[in-house]
């Protein structure tokens, strides 16, 4: 029985003030799954949304479910922030996740597959191959697949292998004895990750323009070749998801990079948290797979399709049919931008430069670093890097700067989840060129996005002096994601902001005490306190009968202290509108608690990623852009900043494009009700969405 279930003789309890975080994440993925079912979206983009859900679910089990299971193991009476016993929360999560997975594969089988076939894209399973396709498939298997496979027949000398996290595996049911007279009933084949999961058949072999074969179909057809002399009774694909949280002991660590490299190797073999098997897998085999991985029946997800569904995303790039994808989007160039020349410093001195990606080009940010790398008047460059990608012109520019003798300092966050290995590689390259590489602060991820250039300038008759230029952003310095994540970036020469950014760099790279900042809010020191003060200030204005308004957009709203202050502000009469892309633990629209709060989620072509805080403040209209979500980890356990937007034009742009457009153009919006359920706004689907409205705003 769940901890919140009550006796029928008791009065109905008040609804909890907080919603469940994990159920909120699953609800977010349902909103993404709805995109895969939207007939207005091109076919291959609908497939992409389906794959995104699969990728999100992988991470959900690797992190959130894994953490709850760890918590339960250490304390059976532990509770979640919304008041559920962890055991009860895991039960609800399992029920909801199973339902979501069933729906995901129903969409695949009844929606995506027929849709793709109708536009000339077909998946051919082994039972459907023609004789010519059979010959091609066997030749490919023998040439490209068989040489790299290592079958394992299970016996006392070959126990069940501990398979890699999220790897594709095949359990082969066998009958017979091997060359040594051993009875063999089960073999395991692990598919190397180097093997492609999706293969394109030659066009002349298919009736459709594109015919694809999954690696699992090849294994189904030819797995017997790996067990000659034995009878193959069945081939069943499975996948194990493991706890992927990295553990680094803050007290014992002496070299973060070395410690992390060891943890990355261990990540592939963490404790199992989920088993996925193909539909039709015999129950006896399912039971054995569960037992071998220490899992319970509710941890098993039997799926009607490929267990590694995320790999189908490769098809989007393999099909050269522009009409089956979103129309290409080219970010708008910045008007009157001088390019990668020293004149860009004059432009920034003249007025702040605000960029809204992906509607505005990311090129000016790269231009700034490239120019700093080559300009003889630039002395130093300091930058934080959280995610940059494996191929980055921006990182190459930093390396060039170091080669050119600039003082280059890079705060490289080695603990950026799933980018740890990439960042380790960049660290090695930067250090080899003489750059100073700092791995953040142990115990506090450096999530702030900051770039500072120090330049010697001679203005007029005065002696040359040093001047700082800063770029701060809500998003990563990652060129690829800048094309499909929405983020704000601000270039400024404001002396107070530049001094604050410099102070934050000194705190990270040195050992100085926190000093109050003039303009910025900073986690883990002042951001939360200032945020709560700003909320309370709006409540005071409302209490005095003045107009009061809080509008914000974040990726997640999970911090209880912020939620409680928002409830108080709502009761005081403050108009509160929140754009929350993902999980939201605040319950909007509850009479006497939050009737003045509206919560909306925008799901569309681009990933909503920017964080914007707006406070009316008696007409002053304070606007902040930030790297921080309203979550405990961002406010207490990360280095984050929030930067005020002071330039009137830039401020107006953030308000219009970061906030208002999403309430004015609801075509890609969902609204949350008091029960935590998400629904489309009335008439929303027939109206333009905010992403398209912003694309159109850049059109000539």
UniProtKB/TrEMBL annotation:
Residues 344-512, 522-681 form the Polyphosphate kinase C-terminal domain. Keywords: ATP-binding, Kinase, Nucleotide-binding, Phosphoprotein, Transferase. Pfam families: PP_kinase, PP_kinase_C, PP_kinase_C_1, PP_kinase_N. Residues 133-313 form the Polyphosphate kinase middle domain. One of its GO terms (biological process) is polyphosphate biosynthetic process. One of its GO terms (cellular component) is polyphosphate kinase complex. Residues 19-123 form the Polyphosphate kinase N-terminal domain. Its EC number is 2.7.4.1. The keyword Nucleotide-binding applies. Gene3D superfamilies: Endonuclease Chain A (3.30.870.10), Polyphosphate kinase middle domain (3.30.1840.10), Polyphosphate kinase N-terminal domain (1.20.58.310). Residues 677-700 are annotated as: Disordered. This is ATP-polyphosphate phosphotransferase. It comes from mine drainage metagenome. The lineage of its organism: unclassified sequences, metagenomes, ecological metagenomes. The gene is ppk_11.
């Amino acid at each position: 029985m769940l901890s919140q279930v009550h006796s029928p003789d008791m009065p109905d309890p008040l609804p909890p003030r907080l919603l469940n975080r994990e159920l909120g994440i699953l609800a977010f993925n349902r909103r993404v799954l709805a995109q895969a079912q939207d007939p207005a979206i091109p076919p291959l983009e609908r497939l992409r949304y389906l794959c995104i859900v699969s990728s999100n679910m992988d991470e959900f089990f690797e992190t959130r479910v894994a953490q709850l299971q760890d918590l339960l193991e250490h304390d059976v009476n532990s509770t979640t922030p919304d008041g559920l016993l962890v055991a009860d929360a895991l039960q609800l999560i399992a029920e909801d996740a199973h339902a979501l997975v069933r729906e995901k594969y129903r969409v695949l089988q009844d929606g995506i597959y027929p849709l793709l076939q109708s536009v000339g894209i077909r998946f051919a399973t082994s039972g459907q191959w023609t004789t010519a396709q059979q010959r091609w498939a066997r030749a490919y298997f023998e040439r490209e697949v068989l040489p790299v496979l290592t079958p394992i027949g299970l016996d006392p000398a070959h126990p069940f292998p501990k398979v890699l996290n999220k790897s594709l595996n095949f359990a082969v049911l066998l009958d017979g004895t091997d060359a040594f007279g051993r009875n063999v009933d089960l073999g395991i084949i692990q598919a190397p990750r180097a093997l492609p999961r999706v293969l394109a058949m030659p066009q002349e072999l298919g009736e459709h323009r594109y015919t694809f074969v999954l690696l699992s179909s090849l294994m189904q057809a030819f797995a017997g070749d790996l067990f000659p002399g034995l009878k193959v009774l069945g081939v069943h694909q499975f996948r194990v998801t493991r706890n992927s949280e990295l553990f680094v002991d803050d007290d014992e660590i002496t070299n973060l990079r070395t410690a992390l490299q060891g943890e990355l190797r261990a990540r592939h073999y963490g404790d199992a948290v989920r088993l996925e098997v193909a539909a039709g897998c015999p129950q006896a085999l399912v039971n054995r797979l569960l037992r071998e991985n220490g899992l319970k029946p509710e941890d098993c997800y039997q799926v009607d399709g490929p267990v590694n569904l995320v790999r189908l995303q490769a098809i989007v790039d393999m099909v050269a049919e522009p009409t089956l994808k979103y129309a290409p989007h080219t970010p708008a160039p910045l008007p009157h931008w001088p390019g990668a020349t020293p004149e860009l410093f004059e432009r920034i001195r003249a007025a702040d430069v605000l960029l809204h990606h992906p509607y505005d080009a990311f090129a000016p940010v790269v231009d700034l670093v490239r120019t700093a790398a080559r300009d003889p008047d630039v002395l130093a460059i300091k930058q934080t890097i959280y995610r940059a990608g494996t191929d980055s012109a921006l990182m190459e520019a930093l390396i060039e700067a170091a080669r050119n003798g600039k003082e280059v300092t890079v705060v490289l966050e080695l603990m950026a989840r799933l980018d740890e290995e990439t960042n380790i590689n960049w660290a090695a390259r930067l250090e080899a060129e003489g750059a100073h590489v700092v791995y953040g602060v142990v115990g506090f991820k450096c999530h702030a996005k900051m770039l500072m250039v120090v330049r010697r300038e001679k203005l007029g008759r005065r002696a040359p002096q040093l001047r700082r230029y800063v770029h701060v952003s809500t998003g990563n310095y990652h060129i690829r994601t800048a094309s499909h994540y929405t983020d704000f970036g601000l270039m400024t020469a404001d002396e107070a902001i530049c001094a604050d950014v410099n102070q934050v760099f000194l705190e990270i790279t040195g050992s100085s005490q926190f000093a109050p900042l003039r303009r910025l809010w900073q986690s883990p020191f002042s951001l939360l306190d200032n945020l709560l003060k700003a909320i309370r200030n709006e409540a005071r204005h409302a209490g005095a009968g003045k107009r009061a308004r809080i509008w914000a957009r974040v990726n997640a709203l999970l911090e209880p202290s912020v939620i409680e202050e928002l409830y108080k502000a709502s009761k005081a009469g403050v108009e509160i509108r929140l754009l929350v892309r993902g999980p939201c633990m605040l319950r909007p629209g509850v009479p006497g608690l939050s009737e003045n709060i509206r919560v909306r989620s925008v799901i569309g072509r681009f990933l909503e990623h920017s964080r914007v805080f707006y406070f009316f403040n008696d007409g002053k209209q304070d606007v902040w852009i930030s790297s921080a979500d309203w979550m405990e980890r961002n406010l207490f356990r990360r280095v984050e900043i929030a930067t005020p937007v002071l330039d009137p034009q830039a401020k107006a742009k953030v308000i219009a494009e970061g906030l208002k457009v999403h309430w004015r153009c609801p075509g890609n919006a969902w609204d949350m009700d008091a029960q935590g359920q998400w629904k489309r706004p009335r008439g929303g689907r027939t109206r333009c969405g905010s992403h398209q409205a912003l694309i159109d705003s850049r059109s000539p």
